[in-house]
Inverse folding.
């Protein structure tokens, strides 16, 4: 059975990789991707402010150094794709800890791997699959210790969270979980806790040491970029209500039918495994609350780690449902799970194109790809924002009001000598 499950998993991982390769973007995206491309090509970067993503930026440059003849965008998309697959491997291990069923675990894994947000982040130049790798590996080791009532991994967990902090300052929202882990694991020594905290501090220390040494920016910029300070710190009731509804909409679009199993899994965890329930709540809760009240257009990406945790809980609901299914039918269910999400997203996009009010709403976004950009996770037909910026700069087309990364695109094009300085 173990050999059979490895065979199924290897095949599914290969299938997911093929989907990502076929739907990957050939161009930097309209969000932070152009900035990541710009800084990766400039060289190693010692900036540690909240939006520089220190570790990710420097790994990107290292990747370009290792593949100097390759297209830079392809290399950086490759970083996203490779770390996505690494994450999927550890998500599989994480779900197996919970469900204890190697075959049925593959169904929630597929739902997560081909969910809109994860799929999209896997095929573009973005930080989040790289970031999630450090977090899911630390969560996996924490949960393994907690469920097995052991303390084998406190120092590796601290090191991984330190690397996560170097990648994204949002990692501090997982520090309460680390404290709960120290309290939950039986017979863990004060010495282990002390050295774990020291390791975490040492690994994450460049965020503080570098700006103090270089006098490059104040320490508050490590926690939030100055232009987003008000958004991060504000608390507005209207934004909170909208954010809550929006977060539920994101959840349903990402997990669709599987949402039912998530709800059931939460109930099962509460009734049968309180340690798992509290672990999941403390891990996902702070990030979810922060993300749903963070009123920016791309806050949907902040839900990715909670989605992994919810996928684990959903495997419990699916396992309960699967008790009534004979194992010989499981391959068919796995095959359905593989095609389910792509079919839902493709159908939703095609139906939306027939609804006049939605096409009118999407008309100003035609330069991004219109409704397809918002409803289909793949980016195989994405627009080149650099080419678009060049046409705006030369007056070939009119400026686009919400092309927020236009200045960065122009800066990149000037550095590459593709447009004149004048």
């Amino acid at each position: 059975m173990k050999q059979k499950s490895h065979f199924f998993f290897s095949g599914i991982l290969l299938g997911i990789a093929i989907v990502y390769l076929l739907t990957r973007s050939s161009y930097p995206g309209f969000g932070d991707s152009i900035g990541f491309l710009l800084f990766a090509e400039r060289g190693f970067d010692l900036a540690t402010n909240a939006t520089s993503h220190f570790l990710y930026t420097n790994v990107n440059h290292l990747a370009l150094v290792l593949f100097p003849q390759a297209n830079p965008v392809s290399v950086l998309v490759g970083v996203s794709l490779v770390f996505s697959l690494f994450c999927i491997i550890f998500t599989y291990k994480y779900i197996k800890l919970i469900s204890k069923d190697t075959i049925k675990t593959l169904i929630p894994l597929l739902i997560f791997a081909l969910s809109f947000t994860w799929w999209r982040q896997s095929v573009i130049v973005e930080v989040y699959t790289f970031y999630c790798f450090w977090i899911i590996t630390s969560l996996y080791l924490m949960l393994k210790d907690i469920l097995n009532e052991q303390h084998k991994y406190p120092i590796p967990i601290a090191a991984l969270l330190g690397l996560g902090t170097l990648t994204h300052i949002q990692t501090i929202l997982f520090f309460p979980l680390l404290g709960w882990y120290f309290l939950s694991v039986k017979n863990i020594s004060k010495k282990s806790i002390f050295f774990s905290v020291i390791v975490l501090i040492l690994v994450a220390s460049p965020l503080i040491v570098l700006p103090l040494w270089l006098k490059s920016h104040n320490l508050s910029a490590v926690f939030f970029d100055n232009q987003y300070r008000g958004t991060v710190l504000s608390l507005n009731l209207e934004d909170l209500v909208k954010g809550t509804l929006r977060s539920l909409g994101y959840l349903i679009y990402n997990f669709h039918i599987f949402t039912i199993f998530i709800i059931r899994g939460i109930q099962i965890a509460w009734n049968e495994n309180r340690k798992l329930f509290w672990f999941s709540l403390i891990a996902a809760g702070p990030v979810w609350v922060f993300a749903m009240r963070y009123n920016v257009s791309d806050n949907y990406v902040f839900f990715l780690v909670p989605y992994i945790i919810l996928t684990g809980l959903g495997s419990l609901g699916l396992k309960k449902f699967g008790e009534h299914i004979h194992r010989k039918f499981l391959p068919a269910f796995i095959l359905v799970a593989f095609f389910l999400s792509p079919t839902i997203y493709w159908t939703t996009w095609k139906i939306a194109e027939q609804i006049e009010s939605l096409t009118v709403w999407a008309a100003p976004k035609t330069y991004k790809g219109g409704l397809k950009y918002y409803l289909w996770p793949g980016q195989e037909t994405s627009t080149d924002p650099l080419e678009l910026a060049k046409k705006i700069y030369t007056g070939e087309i009119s400026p686009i009001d919400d092309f927020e990364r236009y200045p960065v695109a122009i800066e990149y094009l000037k550095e590459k000598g593709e447009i004149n300085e004048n």
About this structure: The chain is about 70% helix and 0% strand.
